[in-house]
Specification:
By secondary structure, the protein is of the alpha+beta class. The protein has 14 helices and twelve strands. It has helices at residues 108-113, 129-145, 151-164, 169-185, 191-204, 211-224, 228-241, 249-262, 266-280, 291-310, 313-325, 335-347, 351-364, 371-384; strands spanning 6-10, 14-22, 34-38, 44-49, 51-53, 63-66, 70-72, 75-81, 89-90, 96-97, 99-105, 121-124. Strands 2, 5, 6, 7, 11 and 12 form a six-stranded antiparallel beta sheet that branches. Helix 5 (191-204) packs antiparallel against helix 6 (211-224) and helix 12 (335-347) runs parallel beside helix 14. It starts with 5 loop residues before the first strand and ends in a 6-residue tail after the last helix. Residues 108-126 have low confidence and may be disordered.
Length: 390
């Protein structure tokens, strides 16, 4: 019986042509039941009634096989067997169930209708740990020999290593290196691929020594693309486990408050900023290296939010003009601050200034993925029509 979920990850869409599970069951085999898959958000795919196959040495019902011929999108999937008690496990793969999955790129139906197109068939076999290590060494050698600027080839080799050699140390290292490539090597960064990669890593290696760092990278990727509800969820879990004795307590609270603002939960963020102010100005302030800075940040945001809540638009405009004028070299306003400044300008009657600032919000988030950019786009559509960027 498998001791861990049996999962596989696809990095592009594939048609799964067959799934075979092994039921040794003490040399007795097992009458075939069904096999299913579980996708994102626990969505059930299948189940399919399995057919029995012997092991070639006289053991009937040793293998259960289904042929779903179903197209799956990129993502991580869990194999579900209706008889886990007789499903054999593989100690070399962390005691996951023994399964063989065959698939091919593209749509199997179209491939059958157009056999001349030559669809590539790919197997996802279970290699022993020794075989995985040998394959990982081979792929790492190809990566070292590749042109260092051929990002497409390097990316493909890392993905191949992750897929074929998941139980090796090189696989975890490949996740790490590939996340660096997506975040810093690509221009602009490949944020969607980065998020999917880090999500897959944390699902596959939740107890790894690198998991905390990869979790931080995922949170940063969510922040960079304005996925604020997800950021709030991650910070909520972290903040719940923190105490005031933690040296990162104040800065984590500030980041949590900023995420709450980004997701539109202004009142909750105000409560967190006030909590930071209380700690940073109290007797324990000396326990934090940058308590003075965190206190100033919290007080500034409290001032701004209180002006917003009171709808004191002229005062808010002056507060932001002063704040932006006093910013140091290379400092940049947060997208939330730019949006609030634009809203204050509009509410105070400065429509041309508001249009300019709404456009700045959208330039800050070219992907138009954040709540702030979407709000700016909606206001610009009302104020100027379709000429959003001038």
């Amino acid at each position: 019986m498998p001791l861990k979920p049996t999962r596989f990850t696809l990095y592009d869409s594939r048609t799964i042509t067959s799934i075979t599970t092994f039921h040794w069951n003490g040399g007795k085999g097992a009458l075939p039941g069904s096999i299913a898959l579980q996708g994102k958000n626990k969505r059930l795919i299948g189940p399919w009634q399995a057919s029995a196959i012997d092991d070639g040495q006289g053991l009937a019902n040793a293998y259960w096989e289904v042929k779903p011929n179903i197209m799956l999108e990129a993502g991580t999937y869990t194999v579900l067997d209706s008889e886990p008690g007789t499903w054999s496990r593989n100690p070399a793969k962390g005691d996951m169930g023994i399964v063989r999955i065959l698939g091919q790129r593209g749509d199997a139906t179209k491939a059958q209708q157009n056999p001349g197109e030559g669809t590539e068939v790919e197997q996802v076999p279970l290699l022993t740990l020794e075989q995985q290590q040998a394959r990982a060494t081979e792929l790492f050698q190809q990566i070292r020999q590749a042109d260092k600027y051929d990002y497409a080839q390097i990316e493909q080799l890392y993905l191949q290593l992750i897929s074929e050699c998941p139980d090796t140390e090189q696989a975890e290292e490949s996740y790490f290196r590939l996340s660096n490539l997506y975040r810093m090597g690509m221009d602009p960064p490949e944020y969607r691929k980065l998020r999917e990669l880090l999500e897959a890593y944390l699902e596959r290696y939740p107890a790894s020594e690198m998991a905390p760092e990869m979790g931080k990278r995922l949170r940063r990727a969510y922040e960079d693309t304005g996925q604020w509800p997800r950021v709030v969820e991650l910070y909520h879990a972290e903040v719940s486990a923190l105490t005031e004795a933690n040296p990162h307590y104040l800065v984590t609270l500030l980041d949590y408050a900023r995420a709450l603002e980004g997701s539109g939960e202004r009142d909750k963020s105000l409560a967190i900023y006030r909590q930071v102010q209380t700690v940073a100005s109290g007797e324990k302030a000396g326990n934090y290296d940058m308590s003075d800075l965190w206190l100033r940040v919290a007080r500034k945001r409290i001032e701004i939010i209180e002006l917003l809540n009171a709808e004191k638009w002229h005062e808010l405009v002056e507060a932001y003009r002063k704040q932006f004028a006093n910013m140091g070299f290379a400092e940049m306003p947060q997208i939330q601050e730019l949006l609030e400044y634009a809203q204050a300008l509009e509410k105070s009657g400065d429509q041309s200034g508001a249009i300019k600032q709404y456009r700045q919000v959208m330039r800050t988030d070219q992907g138009n993925q954040t709540l702030q950019a979407q709000q700016a786009s909606a206001r610009l559509t009302t104020l100027v029509g379709t000429d959003l960027y001038e």
